[in-house]
Amino acid sequence: MNCYDCHDQERPATVAVALCIRCGAALCTAHSQTRPVPVHRVRGMGLATSPHLARRITCTVCHKAEAGS
Ligand SMILES: [Zn+2]
Ligand SMILES: [Zn+2]
Known about the structure:
alpha+beta, two-stranded antiparallel ribbon, binds zinc ion
């Protein structure tokens, strides 16, 4: 599969290495945005946060939309 953003911007086809979690677009390394996210789990009476951060990958479009700018 090739990068959707490269295709959209009429750049040469680039092999995709990830998928946007929000829109499902296949992405190359230049177009994927990786963000660490905390993981919450229900434990006992409350919520516990994992000491390790999970990973969230989005495309540049969804990254901009989520950042609100
Ligand atoms: Zn790309
Ligand atoms: Zn996206």
